[in-house]
């Protein structure tokens, strides 16, 4: 009996010793911290790694995460300056920098941060209207971060970022905003369409203007070149005529040959036949009736017999045929030839 009792006592002591050793050794993971109280008073903070404490005297609290934490709060109703209720969903990024302050300065730092975020958000958004609230997220984030960082500094917490995840206005406001956006899009589309049409018309008008200018310049250049060509041709003819020194009989014959060309146009229904035609015909007949003047080289050679009479007869018949053609054309168009202006004899 005594041996069994001693054996049991030894086993109990061995187990107690092992349990005491295990309570004396504490291993803290990386980026964690554990507060130690000795006899109910804060003693120290255990750092990552192997730590030793006094069993049954030191009390080790649960580990505190020193990494940056992300907390997403439930959407909170907030009243804007224009008395509209919107629900705002926020996301908070914070980090515990002092485990002692986080454990002893505030009972629950997560709940404290959430409530402080809600109250600060209502204060910031309450001074803005709905339109400014929807378009000023960066301003709201910076103001929230400044207020929260200042308030949570004594709790051993550093607020790194505060983000507005969603802003949900009432359903009626959403419908009105959608209608307004649709009207704005239709307005911009109509303006862009009108601008496009105006630009197209302007470009078309500019193109027509340039084409008309170029066409007019081309016509002008063509007319100038044509007039210059005609002027040069007339000048060459004039010089050739004066260089050869024609007599009036040849000019009368050329004038008679020009008259049929006046009747070749389709729209020429009116003819002016001057009285000089008779004199031209008589000059032609006289020219061919008379013998040609002899040049010094041929002065001694006599003309063949009957050559002058035959030439005169041919010229007379040609003149009579031309006169009859002109008279027939004038009678067909029912136009009487204009008589030459009478010459008054001096008194």
UniProtKB/TrEMBL annotation:
<protein>
    <submittedName>
        <fullName>Modulator of FtsH protease HflK</fullName>
    </submittedName>
</protein>
<keyword id="KW-0472">Membrane</keyword>
<dbReference type="GO" id="GO:0008233">
    <property type="term" value="F:peptidase activity"/>
</dbReference>
<dbReference type="InterPro" id="IPR036013">
    <property type="entry name" value="Band_7/SPFH_dom_sf"/>
</dbReference>
<feature type="domain" description="Band 7">
    <location>
        <begin position="23"/>
        <end position="181"/>
    </location>
</feature>
<feature type="region of interest" description="Disordered">
    <location>
        <begin position="296"/>
        <end position="315"/>
    </location>
</feature>
<dbReference type="Pfam" id="PF01145">
    <property type="entry name" value="Band_7"/>
</dbReference>
<dbReference type="GO" id="GO:0006508">
    <property type="term" value="P:proteolysis"/>
</dbReference>
<feature type="region of interest" description="Disordered">
    <location>
        <begin position="322"/>
        <end position="347"/>
    </location>
</feature>
<dbReference type="InterPro" id="IPR001972">
    <property type="entry name" value="Stomatin_HflK_fam"/>
</dbReference>
<keyword id="KW-0378">Hydrolase</keyword>
<dbReference type="InterPro" id="IPR050710">
    <property type="entry name" value="Band7/mec-2_domain"/>
</dbReference>
<comment type="similarity">
    <text>Belongs to the band 7/mec-2 family.</text>
</comment>
<keyword id="KW-0645">Protease</keyword>
<dbReference type="InterPro" id="IPR018080">
    <property type="entry name" value="Band_7/stomatin-like_CS"/>
</dbReference>
<dbReference type="InterPro" id="IPR001107">
    <property type="entry name" value="Band_7"/>
</dbReference>
<keyword id="KW-1133">Transmembrane helix</keyword>
<keyword id="KW-0812">Transmembrane</keyword>
């Amino acid at each position: 009996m005594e041996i069994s009792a001693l054996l049991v006592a030894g086993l109990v002591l061995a187990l107690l010793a092992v349990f005491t050793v295990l309570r004396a050794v504490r291993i803290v993971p990386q980026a964690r911290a554990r507060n130690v109280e000795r006899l109910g008073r804060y003693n120290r903070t255990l750092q990552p790694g192997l730590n030793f404490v006094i069993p049954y005297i030191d009390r080790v609290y649960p580990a505190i995460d020193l990494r940056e934490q992300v907390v997403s709060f439930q959407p909170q109703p907030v009243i804007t300056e224009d008395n509209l209720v919107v629900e705002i969903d926020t996301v908070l990024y914070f980090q515990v920098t002092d485990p002692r302050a986080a454990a002893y300065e505030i009972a629950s730092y997560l709940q404290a941060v959430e409530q402080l975020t809600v109250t600060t958000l209502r204060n910031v958004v309450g001074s803005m209207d709905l339109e400014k609230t929807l378009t000023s997220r960066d301003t709201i984030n910076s103001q929230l971060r400044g207020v929260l960082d200042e308030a949570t500094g004594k709790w051993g917490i550093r607020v790194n970022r505060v983000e507005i995840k969603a802003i949900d206005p009432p359903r009626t406001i959403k419908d009105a905003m959608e209608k307004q956006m649709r009207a704005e899009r239709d307005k911009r589309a109509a303006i862009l369409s009108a601008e496009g049409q105006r630009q197209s018309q302007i470009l078309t008008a500019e193109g027509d203007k340039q084409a008309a200018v170029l066409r007019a310049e081309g016509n002008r250049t063509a007319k100038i070149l044509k007039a210059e060509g005609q002027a040069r041709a007339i000048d060459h003819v004039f010089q050739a005529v004066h260089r050869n020194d024609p007599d009036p009989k040849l000019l009368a014959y050329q004038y008679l040959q020009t008259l049929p060309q006046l009747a070749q146009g389709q729209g020429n229904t009116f003819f002016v036949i001057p009285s000089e035609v008779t004199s031209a015909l008589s000059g032609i007949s006289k020219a061919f009736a008379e013998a040609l003047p002899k040049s010094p080289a041929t002065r001694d050679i006599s003309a063949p017999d009957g050559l002058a009479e035959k030439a005169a007869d041919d010229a007379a018949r040609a003149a009579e045929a031309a006169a009859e053609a002109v008279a027939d054309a004038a009678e067909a168009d029912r136009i009487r030839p204009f008589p030459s202006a009478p010459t008054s004899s001096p008194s």
